[in-house]
């Protein structure tokens, strides 16, 4: 039962990005139009090889609070730091969420996959603090803080609580990195005591990888530091059918950015760009998450899941499937 | 001693794949090896049973070796994961024998005791960890065409063990990458590929984020790659790699990685190929070699496995076959491998990880019976 004025259109920042990014965001724009959804997009051109995210883009996101983006290709090696990481840090989007689940009609080798990976997004191995001590020796700092570990654990348990999930599993390597991952685990255990209705357990990350590929049904919600989260999310997305279809986003206290859930392939290959054959499902499902975030649940429900084809065909199929 | 170890290393590198003969045929290799007089002299091997299911699986190895009358005898030492350091006599024994086989050592999570597994590798400078993940006939998996060798840098990277609490609530952990270690692991990987007729080496990294550290690793790999023009070389970012492993594992051949990624990639690859309790592997350096279950997950097992004696010995048995080749006893290695593969193919190794109920003793007896 909406309140009067709830249908007022909302502005959303749109970043097409690199590679297949523009294709898949184009698909989202088409579908939103076809639904007459009350959103309109402020588009900005950002590319992975820019030095920083332009100030106007950040202002737009701060104003709109919500953003949808395609992948930004971070160059390997020297010089340019990742704009994806920069966005997350500047807006303090400390939680990255990927929902990996078996979709009807998508053939996979694994059944019963329904995993939500919640990954700390701002510190850990991605602190970006590296230096060359002497020529030929490089040190890279992995920073873990109680503050960040506690808030990501809190987010994970809160997510489980609100979404009727039964179990939260913390992924770590505290037998080797005793202080760093030990601090992470401590924070998780503290928060777990506040949610007695939700089961909590821990798993070492190498065993976790193996369990994911042999018995994925044992996992429900997983909370992890930054690097492990990246790998676990991509593995989970892979077993559930591929990162081209798993939705996700990055959320913080004030803002949210929605994008393809797991990072592998979100820029795609040149062939995909040339042949217009990118898979828009992940971004479409993420845009449905975005519609819920904006309090437009019925529009979110109307989005459907198509199967493979060229981007345009898939988009048309989605539009045709909308009532 | 260092020069003599090179042929040993080359023997290690030979992958434990079965020959194409069907399991029931006699080994055709008896004429290929012409021993020198005295080659049959028994060799001493250090044996560390370890924790959990470790003693069970190492006992399985001892039984099978005795049944084959293999020219090895074991010097057994008790080492447990909660000891402060590896006892000096054990280190001396390994240094003397050059070869060791061990079960898992359970490293306590959290404060105090550092990992003895890591300590062993660092003290003996076993800089390469090798896990061979492949589909075993008769072992049901969701993935076909898996034939991956993961070569992982074993001494530095995220496992440098250098952590400190800057201020209460803030911990820094140092990941150290050096040109020296990166070059030698890359060299080992390409040499392995070259000696075992492998077509491609893939470097796994995250150099888009850790530009200096993984950038240095990649640079070293690229340099070494130019020296092996006959072997294809490519690179893959680690998150994409994880996804590709679970969707299209057939694209990977030999993979070379820094320490942490190697741990995860090896366990994932072992998982898709049938489970870490089936995949052989070892740690090798210039002078010494320690053989153990390839990927680390589950090498200590659960209490239930220990109490009911239902551990799976296949990984350690295949690793001991690798060890026999390392010691220049290839025909024993062939016999052992064929027996193990036959038992697995005929479905007589239905241990708990396969959903079955067999005890380790039953499996060992089946393997001993299958030996010719």
From TrEMBL, chain A:
Domain Isopropylmalate dehydrogenase-like: 11-318
Gene3D superfamilies: Isopropylmalate Dehydrogenase
GO cellular component, one term: mitochondrion
Transferase is among the record's keywords: no
Superkingdom of this protein's organism: Eukaryota
Keyword Oxidoreductase listed: yes
Gene Ontology MF, one: isocitrate dehydrogenase (NAD+) activity
SUPFAM superfamilies attached to this UniProt entry: Isocitrate/Isopropylmalate dehydrogenase-like
Keywords noted in UniProt: Magnesium, Manganese, Metal-binding, Mitochondrion, NAD, Oxidoreductase, Transit peptide, Tricarboxylic acid cycle
Gene Ontology BP term (one): isocitrate metabolic process
Localization per record: Mitochondrion
Record-linked NCBIfam families: mito_nad_idh
Family label: Belongs to the isocitrate and isopropylmalate dehydrogenases family.
Function according to Swiss-Prot or TrEMBL: Performs an essential role in the oxidative function of the citric acid cycle.
Protein name according to UniProt: Isopropylmalate dehydrogenase-like domain-containing protein
TrEMBL record, chain B:
GO cellular component assignments: mitochondrion
Domain named Isopropylmalate dehydrogenase-like: residues: 44-367
GO BP term, example: tricarboxylic acid cycle
Pfam families per record: Iso_dh
Protein origin, superkingdom: Eukaryota
Keywords: Magnesium, Manganese, Metal-binding, Mitochondrion, NAD, Oxidoreductase, Transit peptide, Tricarboxylic acid cycle
InterPro entries, alphabetized: Isocitrate_DH_NAD (IPR004434), IsoPropMal-DH-like_dom (IPR024084)
Locations listed in the record: Mitochondrion
Region Disordered, residue ranges: 1-41
A GO term for molecular function: metal ion binding
Family: Belongs to the isocitrate and isopropylmalate dehydrogenases family.
Chain's role: Performs an essential role in the oxidative function of the citric acid cycle.
Protein's name according to its UniProt entry: Isopropylmalate dehydrogenase-like domain-containing protein
Record organism: Spirodela intermedia
């Amino acid at each position: 039962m909406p309140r009067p004025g709830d249908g007022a259109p909302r502005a959303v920042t749109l970043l097409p990005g690199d590679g297949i990014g523009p294709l898949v965001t184009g698909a989202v724009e088409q579908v939103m139009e076809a639904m007459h959804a009350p959103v309109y997009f402020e588009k900005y051109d950002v590319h992975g090889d820019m030095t920083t995210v332009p100030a106007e883009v950040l202002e737009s996101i701060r104003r709109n609070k919500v953003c949808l983006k395609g992948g930004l290709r971070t160059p390997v090696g020297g010089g340019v730091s990742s704009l994806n990481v920069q966005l997350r840090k500047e807006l303090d989007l400390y939680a990255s969420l990927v929902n990996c689940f078996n979709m009807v009609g998508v053939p996979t080798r694994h059944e019963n996959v329904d995993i939500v990976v919640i990954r700390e997004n701002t510190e850990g191995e991605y602190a970006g603090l590296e230096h060359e001590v002497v020529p030929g020796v490089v040190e890279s700092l992995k920073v873990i803080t109680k503050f960040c570990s506690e808030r990501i654990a809190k987010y994970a348990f809160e997510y489980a609580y609100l979404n009727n999930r039964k179990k939260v599993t913390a992924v770590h390597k505290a037998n080797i990195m005793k202080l760093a991952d030990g601090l992470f685990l401590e924070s998780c255990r503290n928060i777990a005591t506040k949610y007695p209705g939700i089961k909590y357990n821990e798993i070492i990350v190498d065993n976790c990888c193996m369990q994911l590929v042999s018995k994925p049904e044992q996992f429900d919600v997983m909370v992890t530091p930054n690097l492990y989260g990246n790998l676990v999310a991509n593995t989970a997305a892979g077993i559930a059918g591929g990162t081209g279809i798993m939705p996700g986003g990055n959320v913080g206290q004030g803002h949210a950015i929605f994008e393809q859930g797991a990072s592998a392939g979100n820029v795609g290959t040149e062939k995909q760009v040339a042949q217009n054959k990118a898979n828009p499902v992940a971004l479409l499902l993420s845009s449905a998450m975005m519609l819920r975030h904006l309090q437009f649940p019925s529009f979110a429900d109307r989005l459907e899941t198509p199967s493979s084809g060229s981007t345009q065909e898939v988009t048309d199929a989605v539009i045709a499937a909308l009532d």
